[in-house]
Design goal:
It is built from 13 helices and two strands. It is mostly helical. The protein folds into two domains: 252 residues, no CATH class; 54 residues. The chain starts with a helix and ends in a 5-residue tail after the last helix.
Amino acid sequence: MFNLIRNELMKIFKRPGTYVMIGILVLITSIAAGFIKYQQLDNISGNAKWEQRLKEETASAKQQMAMSKSKPEKDYLKRQIAINEYRLEHRIAPEEKYSTWEFVSDASQIISLAGLFVIIISAGIVASEFNWGTIKLLLIRPIKRSKILLAKYSSILLFGLFLLSILFIYSTALGAVLFGVPDKTAPYLNYYDGKVTEQNMVIHLIKYYGMNSIGMLMLSTMAFMISSVFRNSSLAIGLSVFLMFTGGQITNLIAMKFSWAKYILFANTDLMQYFEGSPLINGMSLSFSVIVLTIYFLVFQFLAFYIFNKRDVAA
């Protein structure tokens, strides 16, 4: 199995396009850092006044929450009030200056670009074998078809993890050079289920990147399934990229009128909505979204493996 995965990774990294993808990822991260550095305003208000400022913000947020009729807005204000009160109670001052950790967090928006690259690889990893006729060379070997397909999917996961690692490590290094690392990193205050807890900032960012990668994982798996079922990389790329950019918006529109929208894939890919926002639809929970995502994942994998194993490739 290890040799199969290694061979698939060698195929991926032998393509010049792979290095173009890596270069674009690094370039976009650099441009984002340069833009933030250029726009940055170092207006430091002073730590001595942070408590008074938080008290004023908390009082204002409570007034807004009393007047608001929007549940998402109320949930956001409730979270902000709880975090502010926790800071005041435990004397945890907010960061007064933009630092490397904030840039690493902001750079997570580029995960969608990494996801696009993984989708392209996923869409072609099986379909290209049929187009080039090399699939016959794989299948004549005394190896089960399911094992070959599993090696291909595993290589996709490893490639996605590789791109995420590059983004995380490069944004951390670049952020440290341009924005500096705080002498004492304040903990991240996590609000979940009405409670505020402290988390190590680095661990939080790793979890944050992981949760923001759920959409990339699901769309890449779908592209892999389409590639395996229809043997058409263009269809896999086109459909997956289309849903990547429009799936969330379409789901939000449906959710405004129909509660069954909570069963749509894109209503559940953003797990951060349970930690830094509010569920798209009442009745949704973290466990619900995990179950829905698991069902979609298993369906995609079943279709890919079942049809790949049954299909005649002699022609």
